[in-house]
C-alpha cells in the first residue's frame, strides 16, 4: 500500500506526498467505525431468534412462535411491535444524533465526535449486556444509536479528509467493506452464543463493546484533520499536520487549496438554505433518493431478520443461524468485487446489473414462498426447496453488495460541490437511517400482512430504482469532484438546472455518458 510519488488532487493537479502510516491508521479507525455499524446490523436478528431472549423479554412472541405450527400463519409468528422496536429504535436515535454530530464535528473537530460516538456506544453495549428488562434493552439500543450517529457522521469525513485524493474512492468502499465484516462477525458470534446453555444473548450484545473500545482508544490517540484545524483557525497546526500525514515538508499546494476551499465554504453561511436553491436540485434529489432506494431494495430484511426469515421458512434453529452466516460471508466477498471494478466499469453498470439480478431473485423467492405457503401461510418447505430459497437469497445479497450497498454511500458523497457537500452528506445519512428504521420497524408486520407479496413489493421498488438510475443517474467514475458540475450540465434532464457560470470555461469538455 506504500505508494510513493505524487498524489493526484483530483483536478489534474499533482500534490506532493505519499501514503504514510498516519493515513493507514486513519483507515483502520474508519474501519472500526464501520465494524460498529455492521455489528449492530447483524447482531439483533440472531438475538431476537434466541428462545431464552424471547422468553425473558418478549414472552408473548415466544408463546406465539411455539404454538404457530399448524394453527397460525407462518407469516405472522414473529409479529410484535416491541420486538421490532428493539431492532429499529437504534436507527431513529442515530438519525437524530447525526444532526447534533454534524454541529459537533464542525465546531469541535472530527476527533471529538468520534470519541463521543465510541464512549456512548460503549455505555450502550454495557447496558445491553446487563439488561434486566425491556427498558434497559431499549435505552441501551438508543445509546448505541447515538454512538452510530456520531460515528457515521464523523468517521467518513475524517477519512476523506486524511486520505490522499487518489485513494478517496477505494477508502469510501473500504468503510462499507468494514460494515459487511462487522455484520459477518455478528452472525458468527450469534451462531456461537446460540450454542450456550444460558446467557448467549448477553454475550452477543455485550461483545459490541469490543469494537467500541478499539474505536474510542483510536479516536483519543488520533490527531484531527488539517481541514478541521484550518476551519477552527489553527493554521500553523494544520500545516504541520499536513506535512506529517503526507510525509513531506513540501505541502504548499495542497495547503493553499485547503485554505481556499475552507474560505469558499465559510462564505456559505447557511448550507441548508443554499442546498434548496434550484441550481442544486439534481444533487438534492439524488441525495434523497439514493439512500431511500438503498433501503427499499429490502436488504435489511435479510441483514436484520435472516435467522427469523429462515426459521419462517422452516429451517431448524441452528440451520437458521448458519444460513445467516452464509449470507454474511457472501456479503463480504461480493463487496470486494465492487472495490475491484467500480473505477474500471463505473457506477452505472454495477447499479443496473445489480438491480436486474436482485429483481430476478426477489421474483424467484416470492414465487417459491407462494407455492409452499400460499396465502394461508400453512405449509412446510422441503429441504431442497429451502436450499433453493437460500441460494436465491445469497445471489440477491451478492448483487446488493456490489451495487446499492457501496454505491449508496459512495455516489451521494461524490456529487456535491464543496459548498453544500456536508449538508448533502447529512441528508444522505439521515434519510438512510430513517428508512432503515422504517423497514426495521415494519418488516415483521409487512410479512404478516403482505405475505409472499412482500418480495414482489421490494421487487417493484428495485425495478423502479433501476429505471431511475438508467435515466437519471449520470456516470461519475473518474470525474474529479470539482468538475462534477460538467456531468450535470451535460445530462439530458438535469442540464437545465445548472447555470452556465457554474461550469468553468477554463475546463476541457468532458465526455461522460448519460
Ligand atoms: C446499508 C445497510 C445494510 C448494509 C448491508 C449498507 O450499505 O446502509 O443498511 O445493512 O449495507 O451490507
From TrEMBL:
Gene3D superfamilies: MFS general substrate transporter like domains. Signal peptide: none annotated. GO terms for cellular component: membrane. Keywords: Membrane, Sugar transport, Symport, Transmembrane, Transmembrane helix, Transport. Its main location: membrane. One of its GO terms (molecular function) is monosaccharide transmembrane transporter activity. The chain crosses the membrane at residues 19-39, 82-100, 112-132, 171-189, 201-222, 284-308, 320-342, 349-373, 385-405, 426-446, 452-473. CDD domains: MFS_STP (cd17361). It is a multi-pass membrane protein. It is found in: Membrane. Pfam families: Sugar_tr (PF00083). Residues 26-477 form the Major facilitator superfamily (MFS) profile domain. PANTHER family: SOLUTE CARRIER FAMILY 2, FACILITATED GLUCOSE TRANSPORTER, SUGAR TRANSPORT PROTEIN 11. Belongs to the major facilitator superfamily. Sugar transporter (TC 2.A.1.1) family. This is Sugar transport protein 10-like. It comes from Sesamum indicum. The lineage of its organism: Eukaryota, Viridiplantae, Streptophyta, Embryophyta, Tracheophyta. The gene is LOC105156104.
